[in-house]
Amino acid sequence: MSDGARATPLLRDESGLEYPIPAASLDRFLAELGHAFEDLGLLGRAVTHRSWCAEHAGFESNERLEFLGDSVLGLAVTTDLFGRYPDADEGQLSRLRASVVCAPALAEMAEELHLGDVLLLGKGEAASGGRNRASILADAMEAVIGAVYLDGGIGAAAALVGRLVPPRLATASVTDPKSRLHEMVAQDHGRQLTYRISDEGPEHDKIFRAVVLLDEEPLGAGTGRSKKQAEQAAALEAWRRLEPRSGPRPAEEEADG
Predict the structure, then answer these.
(1) pLDDT single digits (tens) 186-199
(2) Could you read off the pLDDT of 80-120 as tens digits, one per residue?
(3) Which residue among 87, 89, 135, 240 is the one 20 to 30 A from 114 at the CA level?
(4) What is the residue extent of each domain of the chain?
(5) Long-range CB pairs of 102-105, under 8 A, 24+ apart, other chains included
(6) Where does residue 198 fall: left (phi above 0), alpha (psi -120 to 50 degrees), or beta otherwise?
(7) 251 burial via Cβ count (<10 Å: 0-12, 13-18, 19+)
(8) 227-242 and 177-186 are packed helices; what angle lies between their axes, rounded to 10 degrees?
(9) Residue 200's CB: how many other CB atoms inside 10 A?
(10) What is the pTM for the complete model shown?
(11) Domain 177-242 sits in CATH 3.30.160.20
């Protein structure tokens, strides 16, 4: 969406607040989404980023809907996996779920729906490429799922998730990235993998960064809220570099807190 384009306020909440989203972008997004909102105000809130709220009084950001959508997505995916893989154990199901509810997968879903084109962003965020930023898209995708749930119930939310998730399960694996990477390297005797961990931020809100080294040469890097999550992210990047076309991708490991 061009931020200077004329916007038609088709979305209004119960108080009359208007969400200025270009009609063409909105129509395309709703067609891709496949859900007819009874309360378009819910959708308006789902696509409102906090940077927009900082510049426009009276708007509510999508963060609360994001919180709700995260749980709805998890339930819908877990229910689907439970029936789809009757022989998988808890660990395998957890890894499969992590591969399709992680931020990269959510950002891909958002891109398929052209969600970035209907986001309400502050001027600075929009100018710096916020419509294409994976973290913003992933959060907004969860918010949209939360909005669909409030508007149409768990059936509507599950139907949306059911359209978006199965294609990603086809390339998921029950093996986590770190295990897959070690299996690959073990085939070449004499080579050694090590992980270098650093962190930043206050004690209660640390961000960990991991670098995986192959024979002391950096091969992949990743960040996470825990050492384990950072190592898994680094291992996934390293695995993709070593063998990007070697079968299904390993599943991103679920955060352990």
Answers:
(1) 767 677 889 999 99
(2) 889 888 888 888 888 788 878 888 889 989 999 999 999 99
(3) 240
(4) 8-169, 177-242
(5) 102/252, 103/134, 103/135, 103/138, 104/134, 104/138, 104/252, 105/168, 105/252
(6) beta
(7) buried
(8) 50
(9) 10
(10) 0.67
(11) yes
Q: Above 70 in pLDDT, residue 255?
A: no
What is the Rg, in whole angstroms, of the alpha carbon atoms belonging to the chain? 20
> Which 8-state DSSP code applies to residue 246?
S
- How is residue 5 written in tokens? 């384009």
Residue 198 forms beta bridges with which residues? 209
Answer for the pair 44, 11: CB distance below 8 angstroms, yes or no: yes
Dig out the tokens for 90 from the structure: 């808890």
Q: What is the CATH T-level fold of the domain 8-169, as seen in this structure?
A: Ribonuclease iii, N-terminal Endonuclease Domain; Chain A (1.10.1520)
List residues with catalytic annotation.
70, 142
